[in-house]
Amino acid sequence: MTTSIPRFALRMLLGASVLTAGVAQAAPWPMKPVRVIVPYAPGGTADTLGRVVATHLGDSFKQSFIVENRPGAGGVTGSAVVAKSAPDGYTLVISGIGSHAIAPSLSKKMPFDAMGDFTHIAVLGGPPNVLAVHPSVPVKNLKDFVAYAKAHQGALNYGSPGNGTQGHLFAENFMQITGVKMTHVPYKGANPAVSDLMAGHIQALSTTLSTAAGQIRSGKARALAVSTKSRVSEFADVPTFAELGHPELIATTWFSLSGPAGMNKDIVQRLNAEVRRILQLPDVRQKLTAEGIEPGNLDPQQSTAYMAAEIKRWAPVVQASGASID
User: What is the predicted pLDDT for the residue at 20?
Assistant: First the structure.
């Protein structure tokens, strides 16, 4: 004997199932600590931005946002961990130009797809690049430097934080545009490059403004131009490449907040709104401005489009430079 379920009872069961599913989907977030992976060593710009944002996000959402440094392969190692994580909003990464825009062109063995394996939430900002020279180089401005370098084609050495870094590729782009030829001296990080510039072992340096700020202020390095759209208030006497006739050299070593692909859109929107609010707080702006960082203010769709545009922008520069990490 078979037992049939009355239609009204079946409708009630189905309704209860839908309601239960809806409650499960609408479960509040975050219900536990959120891990924020910084794929670089402590102390750099990515770490600073990550910790500032994580601290304020913790206050906003009344839950811990725990920063975890996972350095390696220029940010690729830590980012790969997030690419393989569940898209539940509990694992995020401080992504950026090195790990997500430049690395895909530097290696054919990337462990992730910079666009397809991530949800890009918000652009945080980053310091601009600066081209600086040792005081012994007989130039006072960028125009004179270009003329001097062309008169000594290939004889000048410039340092960068390493092969394939933003500092390296920015200088390569500068040389492509101006016709200048210099010899690249890659270092294992920006600080050794700055030290060798001060010692006179290299004549020029391409790195972030925040890295060389102390030496520029003290006169141990002469800044020729910065890569911002408008002058940096802390270095108002340093012109921009744009105002000197090179608007294509507007660039920053930017960082962003991302998560695994497929994150809940509501969580993404909430994170984006809070990050943008945090970046505009007076104390945060003051801290970032001191390092020449203009805070980001893009929504998730704009952040994703910006990432894609940066990948496209730097690919030909990488190719022309011959840089590779394979």
Answer: 45
